[in-house]
Amino acid sequence: MFITMCVIAYNEENAIDRILGDIAAQDYNHNDMEVVLVDGASTDNTKKHLDNFKEKYKDDFRRVVVLDNPKRTLPSGWNVALREYKGDAIIKVDAHAEIPKDFVSKNVRVLESGEDICGGQRPVIIDEETPWKNTLLLAESSMFGSSIAPYRNNPGKTYVKSMFHAAYRRQVFDKVGFFNENLARTEDNEIHYRMREAGFKLCFDPDIISYQHIRSSLPKMLKQKYSNGLWIGKTAKICPQCLSLYHFVPFAFVSAIIMSVIGTGQKICMPLNRLAKKLTKLMWSVYGLLAAVMSAFSVMKAGKKKNMTNVALPFLFLLLHVSYGVGTLKGLLSKTDGERK
């Protein structure tokens, strides 16, 4: 099977060589692979790194091509690649990813078993071992801090609604068309919904594994969560059916905080004021207990990576949830148009 490996990059000069090296190390026959690299008008040396890879490996793979994405967003970048690729199937991986040498081989095995779309686990990792970054990793990898998406939590081999770092046979995009370029961060949710509606199944195979680097600092992580929430809010106005209920849990939490502030602050109706105060205490008690329990569970699961900064986990969970929820609120109230991540 002729496979296309695709990476979209924007200002990734410090990270891009890692995934490019992983692609070069794949044990799948390179004569049956092409590499499509798309640069989103980077202002650093990302394009130079892509060009260097092309020059070094142009005779190793069947084809290596570097393309430009002037619109800069991820969906527009994927569409640039979809108009160019020649493979029987395309595998798209993130610029912040790492993949083992058998990543392509395992995807091909599943595709050749009769599946049209496949993917697998995508644990998160850190770029260096420090106590604080290990704590950030615990927050991001926790089901409470991130999500219950199957690619984060291995459910065994099954069919799912969405996946990360997936492989698609050519007939999939031939039938459903291109990515929606109005969605700069939730493009996978929307196109996977269209794929399911077109009759395709998304096969999750736990033997397939790739890794995603988390943001390297708390401010960057909070910015990412806010942006994730923002695009959930915007997507809800375009394709609400492609989202799941859990996407809106942080929004419900932030809404409850806002309503509790309003309710406890009003003095017109004292019975309602007392009720609001009781409900507010109950909400924070339940949330605090849940955050403490999930923090303890995450720390115990971490084993030897325990450290003093882990005591910040309940507060990290709160910050992540509020950032995401505020983003969703902003997205619901704002216009929906393309922008960079």
UniProtKB/TrEMBL annotation:
The chain crosses the membrane at residues 243-262, 282-300, 312-333. It comes from the Bacteria. Keywords: Glycosyltransferase, Membrane, Transferase, Transmembrane, Transmembrane helix. Residues 6-176 form the Glycosyltransferase 2-like domain. The keyword ATP-binding does not apply. Its EC number is 2.4.-.-. One of its GO terms (molecular function) is glycosyltransferase activity. Pfam families: Glycos_transf_2. Belongs to the glycosyltransferase 2 family. This is Glycosyltransferase family 2 protein. The lineage of its organism: Bacteria, Bacillati, Bacillota, Clostridia, Lachnospirales.
